[in-house]
Amino acid sequence: MSLSATGIVTAINECVTLFQWAKSAISSLHSRWSGPQEQSLEDHVLQLESGLQSLRDTLPAMYDLIDKAEWRSHEHGVAKLLPNLNDAMTEAEDLLDEFTWYEKKVQVEGNASQSPFTEFFDTVIQGNFNKLSDVQSRLNLLSSHLENMGICGVTQRFDKLVRPETTSLPNETKIFGRDKELEQLLGYVPAPTNPKRKRATSSINGSTSNQVSNDSRMLILPVLPIVGLGGVGKTTLVQLFCSHQRVLAFYELIIWIYVSDDFDVKRLTKEAIQSCTGNEATSDNLDFLQHALSKHLKNKKFLIVLDDIWDDALKGNGQSWKSFCAPFRNVQEGSMMLVTTRCQKVTKGVRTLEPILLEGLNEYIFWIFFKSCAFGSGSSNNYPELECIGRRILPKLKGSPLAAKTLGRMLSMDLKALHWNFILESELWELRQEDTDILPALRLSYMYLPFYLKQCFAFCAVYPKDYIFQKDCLAKFWVAEGFVESNGGIPVEHIACQYFEDLVFDAKKCMLESLPDEFWKGKVIRLMKNLNQFRGDLEITNVHMLSKENAAEAVLKNKKYLDELILNMQSRIIQNNELEVAQLLQPPISLKSLSFLNYECVSLPTWFFQPQNLPSFVSLTDITIDGCENISSLEHFLHPDYVPAIKKIRVEDCEMLASVPTDNFGGFHFLEELHVARCPNSCSQRLVSPSLKKLYLHGSGLFRNIDCCSLTFFYLVCDFVTSIQLEMWSLPALRELHIRCGSLASIVGSTDLSTAFSCLGVLKISHCNKLSTLDDLLTQEYLPAIEKIDVECCPELLSLPGESLTSLTSLSIAGCKGITSIAGDIWRCNLASLEELAIQDCPDLVSIGGAKAVAEIKQVTIHMCPKCKEANQINIRSRQRYLC
């Protein structure tokens, strides 16, 4: 539990009742102890009470210290200490939570039994006395280090190192994808051909005149906000606008002020005067400065830009903003103010015109921009593999130009697939970046949140990325966690909902993934403590970062209502305690779905095995083992006696796995789906299952014998399979078969028709680079029910057999450059019964079986087949059904 400063004091005061009860209990049970023992116990209770009371003074000050330290988290020393201080604070909060829990327990059970005190003595006094002392010492030591760094005196302002000053001159030589927004801005500037036309801003002043004289005035200066996330390009857009010839010709004066989070009216007024005169304003009298600025602006059409405004512009109930705007009244018609901000509150507080919302670049433009950042001025045509990786990186960047520049620069340093894949697989915070890059830009939004919203925002990190939040549900969690402070008679649930509304925009601009994992390490585990009635699904990521103590506190095996558990180690480095932590996260035997991801140890936790002293997972229906590269065996886990109700098994990216124990699968009476992917060393002899309906084999060994009487779907992808012996397969119910095997040279049939695919309706064969014939498979005896055949990218395939398949309605052939004919009189008859025929990229194809037969087909597509006689004839006779 993490409490607000007010909540901490309240909870400690509540615990006073607990210690009064404890002292009373000691006196009433004095017969159990001698005089010295009783005195010693009383001393321990007093010391515990005193230690907790000291938190009343310590923790609120620590929250303030953390808040200040975050403003200097870009400094190495502060960044190193800050996570440690957060951890110590969490431990202190957990201790307090435990004492509060005992307080409630005593209130419920009363003094009717001595058991509450016995437990309090055994667990709390003996177990937590030293822990409390250690936590207090850690807090004192860490706060002392930070105070020695000058944290206590730090001004909560953005450091110029992470927020460099901007100017009106464009930094970019080329701008991508902002034409629409630029035209929208230019709409407020009269075209040179008609400088006296009525402007869009006239309506603000109630003017109805069709002509505007040179000395017409505006009572209020129009303010147009440009709002968007950090790094989306607000400043760049305004720089482009300010440098446009129409703008330069229309405005007599352009004033650019970089505001940042220091909205000091006097400073900003001085900078405006300096822009007008070129001389520094020396007076400190605000009245003098404002009159001077008003005089300089008189009878001038001017544009003033306030770049990067934050919430402090509205401090003093908006009085600071009103004071700054005082010199901009009764100004020349056509003058205007542009404001850039990422704060929705600022937008609402300063606008007189509808704001321009700047979003991420659209996918097409963003890809062009990203390529220019990653490949420089050179073309990317020479790097097709890198282009493919780049397209997979692109969604991580959410259309942000700054993010594209950041990662583009990193990628351009090494144009090799290994380097690009490393960046693809890394999270943003794992990449080393300069101070002015995307993460510091995003973190600024988080830093400027008030402390109570920081707590609420950080809590959201226990949910998976891209999770869609429900306001009422999240608000209840915030209230339960003590993040929401009461305000008069307003229900705390209503206040929490307002917190949600405040974060709706800010959460977007912060991006959950912009904060490092150590910020909330262990939070989700601590939330599980004492929640044995927890229902639903639970995902724990970065398990490798948990301590054994964190994992033990969860006691997941007691959460009997837990349905789905996802344990994601998310580490490519073996941790010393990874096995122990995984062991302590043993789920309940009532679990229905388990995903075990990215585990690096050689041995699985013992709860994965089937020894007699451990109960079976009798309710488990779904299991995923993914990214466990060093695991060699699943024999003891995937066994009918241990997981009897299993329906779906997925095993992926287990490089050292020797086999999937499919010899035992005959005992799985409910198994419906089996996925085995990228397990290159797995080699199983037999797959026998009476219930299996879907089978996916991808980059793994092929079972020599497959006997699955219920299988309806089979997807086979494997580059090292060279031959398929159809006599080894018994799949009487199979309806759809996909084969994609780069080294496959032959598909060998059988004279035993009991192995025929009597129900197969769809056959897809693709990228079988060495396959030269399908004669044994494409026969009426083997495929009596076939309806659709797709053959793609099989360059060694020379022809399709001439036998008629009477039920065939759709035939598609693409990229089979060796095929010269679909031959024979029988095929001619067969083609006449087709409803759809598609042939593409078969440059040597000469004949299909006659133009007359082809012409009868309802839908024909023939593309990139220059030698095909029928194509030439069909193009004349039936143009609408032929694509050239």
From TrEMBL:
This is NB-ARC domain-containing protein. Signal peptide: none annotated. GO terms for biological process: defense response; response to other organism. The keyword Repeat applies. InterPro entries: Apaf_helical, LRR_dom_sf, LRR_R13L1-DRL21, NB-ARC, P-loop_NTPase, Rx_N, WHD_DRP. It comes from Triticum aestivum (Wheat). Residues 223-375 form the NB-ARC domain. One of its GO terms (molecular function) is ATP binding. It comes from the Eukaryota. Belongs to the disease resistance NB-LRR family. Transmembrane segments: none annotated. Residues 526-653 form the R13L1/DRL21-like LRR repeat region domain. Gene3D superfamilies: 1.20.5.4130, Helical domain of apoptotic protease-activating factors, P-loop containing nucleotide triphosphate hydrolases, Ribonuclease Inhibitor. Keywords: ATP-binding, Leucine-rich repeat, Nucleotide-binding, Plant defense, Repeat. Residues 46-108 form the Disease resistance N-terminal domain. Residues 462-504 form the Disease resistance protein winged helix domain. Pfam families: LRR_R13L1-DRL21, NB-ARC, Rx_N, WHD_DRP. The keyword Phosphoprotein does not apply.
